[in-house]
Amino acid sequence: MIQKEDFFIEANRVEGITEEDYLRAKPYIETAQAFAQTTYQSIYIIDYFKKNFLYVSDNPIFLCGHSAKEVMEMGYGFYLNHVPEAELPMLTELNQAGFSAFNATPREEKKHCLMSYDFHILSGGKKLLINHKITPLVLNDLGQVWLALCTVSLSSRKEAGHIEFRHWGTSQYSVYTLTEHQWIDQDEIKLKPEEKEVLVLSAQGYTMKEIAEKVCKSIDTVKFYRKQVFEKLEVENITEALSFAINYGLL
User: Is the pTM of this model over 0.85?
Assistant: First the structure.
C-alpha cells in the first residue's frame, strides 16, 4: 500500500535546513502567490525537508473540495485520497525516476530542468485528468532539491502518463517509459522558418487570412504549416503551441 513516505526517497534526503533558511524562503512564497493571481493554474511549493507543502494556491478546480489550507495540512495525503489507487504506483515510480534525472544533471543546470506528466484526480465523484509540472526552486548546500515549484493545469491529453524531462529554454528532452522503466532521449524538435513565422504572427493576434496575406501564401498552406507545428509539438491548439515553443526556445 502506498504511503506518504514513499514520495520522499533517500537519494534526495535533505538535511540541515534552519529557521533562518525558511525566513529567506518567504520571497519565493510571495512570488508564487503573485503568480497564482495571474493564472488559472494551481501553484504549490513542495518542501522536501519537512516533507510537506510550503504553499498551495487557492484554486477550487484542483483542490477537490478542500481549501488551500486543508491541502497544505494534508500534504502528500492529498494524493493518497484523491488520485485513483491504480495510478499511485505510477506517481511513486515517477518520483524515483524524476530524482534520478535531476541528480544526473549538473548542479548549475538543475534549476533549469522541468518534469511534466499527466494523472487523474478524483473531484466531486469525477475523474479529472491534470498535467503536473515540477521544477527545482531552491537547492541545499549539497545541491539537493529542498523546495520545488509545481504547477497543475488541465491536461490536453486523453490518458495518464506522457512523462517528460526537459531542459528549460532548449528543445532537448527525454521521455520516461512505464514499460521499460527508463528515460529515453528524444530527437530535438525543430521548426521550419515558415512554421515559426505562422506561430509568431498568431501570437500577435492575426487571423489565418491575415497571416496568409502577410506571408504571401494561400490559407490552405498556412493551415498546413499550423498543422505541422501541432503534430511536431504534440499539441491541439495555437495557445498550447505558442506556450510550448516559447518555453522550450523554439522561436
Answer: no
CATH 2.40.50.1020 holds for 193-247: no
Rounded-to-integer distance, Cα 58 and Cα 53, Å: 13
- Residue 169 grid cell: 529554454
Q: Which three cell numbers stand for residue 108?
A: 548549475
Distances (CA, A) of 99 to 63, 117, 140: 25, 14, 15
* Cell numbers at 190, concatenated: 525543430
Closest CA to 181 of 84, 94, 102, 117: 94
- Domain 4-185: give its CATH superfamily: PAS domain (3.30.450.20)
- The Cα angle at residue 229 between residues 150 and 242, in degrees rounded to 5: 40
In this structure, what C-alpha cell is assigned to residue 14?
535533505
Nearest alpha-carbon partner for 49 in 166, 165, 141, 152: 141
**Residue 245 to residue 228: CA distance in whole angstroms:** 13
pLDDT tens digits for range 29-69:
999 999 999 988 899 999 999 999 999 999 888 999 999 99
| Sign for the pseudo-dihedral over CA of 34, 250, 145, 133 | positive
